[in-house]
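protien #1 (seq + structre)
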Amino acid sequence: MGFVEEIKQSKAFKFTASYLGICFVALQVLDPLSERNIINDDLFKILVYLLVAGTPIPLVIGFLSDRYRRKLIGKKTNFNFNVVLSFIALFTIFYLSITNIGLKQSSEKLNWARQDAIPRLYQLIQEGKSADAYKLGKEIEFIIPEDSMLVRAFAKISRKVDIFSEPIGADVYRKDYNSDDSTFEYLGSTPVKDIRFPYVYSLLKLEKEGFETIKIGTHPYYLKTGENKFLMPPSGTIPEDMVLIPGGATLLNMPGLDHLDRIDLPSCFMDIYEVTNAEYKKFIDDGGYQNKEYWPSDFNYNGENLSFNDAMKKFVDGTNILGPSTWEAGYYPDGQADYPVSGISWFEANAYAKYVNKSLPSLYHWNRAADTRSSGAIIPKSNFNGKNTLAVGSAGGVSSFGNYDMAGNVRE
C-alpha cells in the first residue's frame, strides 16, 4: 500500500488532523478577540493550553480504532514509519502556527506598551489623574516590568508601604475609593511588606477565616506614618449592622474645635447607617415617647426648664402628633422607610439610643469615626444636593471605618 493511501486509511491521522484543523480555526477566532481585549491574556493562554492538551485524545482514539479495524480484518499490526513522519509534520505545522500567533501578539503588545501606553501614562500623571495612571501602569507592567520610563512613572504615582494585621495571615485587597468598579486588587497576605500603593485614597479589605472582615479607607501617607496595623476581631464579636472604631489618641480635626486637647479614646462600635424612618417609627409604636426611662429627669430646652409633659409637647409633627417634625399624622412620607429620620431634637435622638441599648457618640467619637481628614475623597460621594435626603448608604459616601453618610444626607 502506498504512503498516501496509508495516510488516507489511518483513523489516527484523520481524527488528529480534524482536531488540529478545529484548533487552528479556534485560534484564528481567539487571536483578534485577544488583541481587542475582549478576552484577557490569561484566558487566551488557558484556552491555548487546553487545545494543546486535548491533542492526544483524538490521536489515542484513532490509534485504538486502527488497531481494532486491523484485528477485524485479520491484518497484523506493524510499526509504520511513514505514518509517524506524517504525525510529526502535522504537529510541527500546528506548533509553528501557535508560535507565530504568540510572537505576533508579543510584538504588538510591546509596540502598544512603548509607543502608546507609556506616553498616555505620563499624560495622565500630568493631568493629576493618579488613579487612572496607576491602573494603566499595572497593565504596562505585565509587558515591560523593568522599563525605565515605567519605573520613573510609578515613583510619581505610588509609594512602597507595609501592611500588618492582628492576627497575621489576613488576605489584603485594595480598590480606589471613588471607583464604581467593585473589583479589588489582591495585595498579599499579612504581613505585606514593601508593596506598591497608589497615591490615591483607597478602600482596604482584610479577610481571614474565623475573623470579621474589615474594610478601611486609607492613603499611603497614613500607611507610611504608622497607621498600617489593623485589628481583626473574632467572628461574631461585632454587633449586627455596626462597625469597629479603633481607639487611640484623637484630635478634633474640625475648624473652630481643633484647639481642644487630644484625648485617648477606647475602641467602640458604631452603626453603619443612619437611623431610618422605619426604625424610628418602631420606637414610637413601642411607646418611646411615653416611657420616661428614655428621657432625662430635667429638660432644659432653649434655656427653659420644662416638665416631662411640657417637653413632649415640643416634640410633635406638623399635625401635632408625637414624632419627628418632618412627619405628618404620625407617619413618614410614602416610600421613605429606609430614608434617614430627620426633624428630631437631641433629646429624641438620645431617647432612641437608649431604646436600642446604645448611646449617642461624643464629639470625639464622631470625629474619630468620620475621619474628617479624608473628606476630600468622601464628600464627592456624599449627598449634599440641598434638596432632599436619600436612602441610607445609597450615595456611597463611606468613612474610613465603614460608616455611611457621616458627611451629607442629614446633619447629626
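ok now protien #2
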Amino acid sequence: MFKSFMYEGGIAVPAIAWGPGVKGGKLESAMAHVTDIAPTLFELAGTRHPGTEYQGKPVLPLRGASMLPLLQGRGQAVHGADKAIGWELGGRKALRKGDWKIVSANQPWGTGDWELFNVAQDRTEGRNLAASNPQKLGEMLVAWRDYVRETGTLEIPNLANRPGYSNGAKYYEDLKYEATLVPRTAKP
C-alpha cells in the first residue's frame, strides 16, 4: 500500500531529531505520532499547554505526549501499551494500541472488514490474526469505538466500499453533501 492507507506502509515514516540532549547516531523504533510534536516542543521551550482556555477562548486538549524522554535516552517509549491512537481517511481506518493494530481498508484494496495484526511480530502486516484471535479483535474494536467517541472522528461508511473513491477530489466533493460538519465552536 501507499501513503493515505492505514497499513504501516502508509502511515509509518522516518524522522530525524536534533536538539538539546539528543544523542546522535541512534536508531529508535518506538512508535510516535504527529500529535506528539506539540507536547515535545512545549517541553523543549520550557512551557506547557494552556489547559482548557487561552485568553478567554476554549482550547482543545493535546492528545499526544512529549517525545523528549525517548530522544534524550531517559525513556524507551513515548506511549504506554494502553494508549490508543487512531487514523481515518476516506473510509480507511486503523487503531494502534501497544503492539496491536486493527485496520479496515475499503475496496478495491480491502473488504472493509477489520484486520488484526501484532506489529511487533509482523511489521509488514502479512498475517491477519482476526479469525484466530477474536478476543483481541473485540478488545481493539471497543478501543476504536472509544477513540471515535472521544475525538469526534467522522466515520463515513457509505463511502467505504465505493471503488471509485481513493484520494481524488471526487471523494471530497461528495463528502460535503454526505457529512455534517460540526463548527469548532460547538460543545459536546
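The chain has one domain: 8-178.
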